[in-house]
Amino acid sequence: MFEYFLLVSPPLNRVYRPNSKTIATAPSKIKPIKLNKKVDINNYQLTIMSYSLNTTILNPLSKKKPKNAVILCHGYGGDGKDISLLASYWRTYLPDTLFVCPDAPEKCAVSAFGFQWFDLMDQTKDQVLVKSLVAEIKLNSLIDEVIEKNDLTSEKIAIGGFSQGCMISLQTGIKRKDKINSVIGYSGKIIDENHLQNNINSSPNIILMHGDKDEIVPVSFLLEAKNFFNKNNYKIQTKIFKNCEHRIPTEGSSLGLEFLKKNLY
Question: What is the pLDDT of residue 188?
């Protein structure tokens, strides 16, 4: 459907954004709804709910109560609308799935329009970890809200993301005591292996994918993550894409879709 998805900082790319609606759940950050005439608004059903993060929501195409939910976290400098491009493709084949695409909790340090899960600029390894723990708390709160408001169980929740969104999803998913179903990661890494090693609480299904030409987050980080999870007896699926930079290729979106269908349906 799409040649590729490039989900990095808005000033660094041009992302076609599907016609979804953004729910401004933080009262001080209400945003106008912008419609794209290229997409039929009837394909995007909207549920007004109060979430702790500003969230782009794509309701099930079946128009029924969701049987499961996928929470997708954007990369550094992006927003929920960016990553909803991936959700808009998947939802065609997952008609009973609710897709939740939050804006990260902080304004991005290098982008006037984007967001960040934690600061990456001029930070030590320990500072990055501390800031990621704050983001982890907020993502966990969102997961709890999605479960409660949609009458789901944790086994019906998948989380994932691109780049920094992958990083925070991995850390949150592995440490969470209330085990979720799956984690999908594109072009990311483990934030701090020592911290994660000491805080493993569950073993969700995991798939990690990466481009071999990635110069933003080198593919070596996928190999390190694979080694980490193998040492800890996780069953993990990985894929390295040839001649692929810091992006999600068509094959990656298809593999992610099949992974979700297998584990959520």
Answer: 98
